[in-house]
Design a protein that fits this description.
Structural class: alpha+beta
Keywords: Signal
Mean pLDDT: 87
Organism: Hymenobacter koreensis
Protein name: Nuclear transport factor 2 family protein
Low-confidence stretches: 1-20
CATH architecture: Roll
CATH class: Alpha Beta
InterPro entries: DUF4440 (IPR027843), NTF2-like_dom_sf (IPR032710)
Pfam families: DUF4440
Number of helices: 5
Length: about 150
């Protein structure tokens, strides 16, 4: 019986030790401020590019990878090029694109190299009618740059 108790104690200690591995914690607001500023800058650069009618420059804010995830009203799309192609199909010219604004941004650090962003988007399109909705973004820092790796917009 003592052997069984010792075995159970050893297993419990092993399990607790495995659960106690440290994960990178989310940075404090002060530590994350420079990254948050960079993320907000990416979004400002994107809206400026959109408002110029430059979809390629707008897409510079996204991870240029086949693993980029964009979820819109038609479901998930994977890949930077496919996402760009969808934007081009849905917004063929500057009039269809309108003027984009982002508001109510909430940037939350997840780790030193990841952040979650929630916000509101609005397209002012006098000829075609305004559009608006909400988005959730996952940003990752890749090669020193903050990029969107997942976008769920509705």
């Amino acid at each position: 019986m003592l052997k069984i108790l010792l075995l159970h104690a050893a297993l419990a200690v092993g399990l607790l030790a495995g659960c106690n591995r440290t994960q990178p914690s989310a940075p404090t607001a002060t530590e994350f401020a420079p990254a948050e500023n960079q993320i907000r800058s990416v979004l400002a650069t994107q809206s400026a590019a959109w408002n110029r009618g430059d979809l390629t420059a707008f897409m510079a804010g996204y991870w240029q990878s086949d693993s980029l995830l964009f979820i819109g009203k038609n479901g998930p799309t994977y890949g930077w090029q496919r996402t760009l192609d969808n934007y081009r199909r849905n917004y063929p010219d500057a009039a269809a694109m309108g003027q984009l604004t982002f508001s109510e941004l909430r940037v939350t650090p997840l780790s030193p190299d990841a952040a979650h962003v929630v916000g509101h988007w609005h397209l002012r399109r006098p000829a075609a009618g305004d559009l608006q909705g909400w988005f959730t973004l996952l940003f990752r820092q890749q090669n020193g740059q903050w990029v969107i790796v997942a976008d769920h917009s509705s």
